[in-house]
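stage 2 :: seqdesign
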């Protein structure tokens, strides 16, 4: 049974709720009460993730009576059923049970206590969710609470497990599509941490439901995150090709001519511009930066073969977000590398007597202009 428990813990950490639920169900009826008590918290987490509230209730009933897990999951279930008084009591009980644990761990080290600190924070957010549910839909207080939650999450450790737990609590009142920015950040965190399955699931949860002819559509921010996911999975050439197509379509959606972007005014600079136009303009800058970065990775000889294309992509990134340091940095660095290579080549050619000074100047001037324009 230790092997099964180990597998369940792994599935729990990976957020594979379907597999965890199936495994728990397959072993549940044939297990002793002691084993059921060990399995119950993991199975309850899976049931919660899948929205299987009746199963979750069954798992809660076999948990140890005075355990933080039982109080926590009971609070979740009560909140789902809008039984706020019971939820508050369970939250208070869970907090009391965690006091002893957190006191002992803090005396050892902050890192060891951090996981329990996060659990205490989750209890605090459950209390806030009760208040959130009692507020009218669309109220300013609700918006302020969501902003506070996001700031709190951004201030926590960039750890997949911690972010997953915090976001999971918020799904009691906020669907992923309503909190797209944070879920995209979470998907990016999963991707950078090598948790590709969880990244894919997170991105899929943000897809817009479509018709049978057009099964699913994604907002531009999600498409961009999906392309980075595709690149990380090793589909590099395909990701770059899709990124170029996506950038072209988005330019057209903003009313721009993709063949002459640098001379056209930026849509977000006009008065009374809608917020989404400003966001898409900034996203366009990020797309051009990625085009340049990915082409550099795919071609070691880019300085001599595709330097104009890459410098152009970086220049457009600065054009669509003139205050973005990373775009200016990449553009300047690429210019420097191209100048350095041409200078070295010209010195060799001059020493061999094969290049005139005018030819050297012609090669350097267009690139040098990148530093001073």
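stage 2 :: out
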């Amino acid at each position: 049974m230790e092997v099964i428990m180990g597998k369940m813990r792994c599935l729990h950490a990976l957020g594979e709720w379907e597999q965890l639920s199936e495994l728990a169900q397959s072993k549940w009826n044939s297990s002793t009460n002691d084993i059921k008590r060990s399995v119950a918290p993991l199975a309850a987490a899976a049931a919660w993730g899948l929205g299987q509230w009746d199963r979750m209730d069954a798992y809660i009933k076999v948990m140890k009576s005075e355990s933080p897990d039982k109080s926590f999951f009971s609070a979740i279930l009560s909140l789902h059923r809008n039984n706020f008084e019971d939820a508050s009591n369970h939250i208070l009980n869970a907090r009391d049970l965690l006091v002893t644990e957190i006191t002992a761990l803090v005396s050892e080290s902050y890192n060891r206590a951090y996981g329990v600190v996060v659990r205490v924070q989750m209890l605090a957010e459950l209390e806030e969710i009760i208040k959130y549910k009692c507020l009218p839909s669309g109220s300013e207080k609700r918006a302020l609470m969501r902003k506070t939650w996001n700031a709190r999450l951004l201030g926590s450790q960039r750890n997949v497990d911690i972010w997953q737990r915090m976001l999971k609590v918020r799904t009691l009142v906020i669907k992923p599509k309503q909190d797209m920015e944070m879920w995209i950040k979470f998907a990016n965190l999963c991707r950078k941490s090598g948790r590709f399955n969880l990244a894919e699931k997170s991105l899929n949860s943000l897809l817009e439901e479509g018709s049978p002819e057009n099964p699913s559509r994604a907002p531009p921010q999600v498409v961009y995150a999906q392309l980075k996911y595709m690149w990380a999975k090793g589909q590099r050439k395909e990701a770059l090709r899709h990124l170029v197509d996506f950038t072209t379509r988005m330019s057209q959606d903003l009313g721009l001519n993709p063949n002459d972007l640098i001379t056209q005014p930026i849509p977000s600079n006009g008065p009374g511009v809608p917020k989404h136009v400003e966001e898409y303009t900034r996203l366009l800058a990020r797309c051009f930066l990625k085009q340049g970065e990915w082409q550099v990775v795919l071609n070691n000889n880019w300085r001599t073969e595709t330097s104009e294309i890459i410098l152009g992509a970086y220049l457009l990134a600065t054009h669509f977000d003139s205050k973005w340091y990373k775009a200016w940095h990449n553009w300047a660095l690429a210019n420097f590398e191209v100048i350095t290579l041409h200078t070295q080549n010209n010195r060799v050619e001059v020493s061999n007597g094969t290049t005139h000074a005018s030819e050297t100047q012609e090669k350097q001037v267009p690139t040098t202009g990148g530093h001073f324009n």
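stage 3 :: structure notes
- The CA atoms of residues 71 and 93 lie 6 Å apart.
- Residues 218-352 form one domain.
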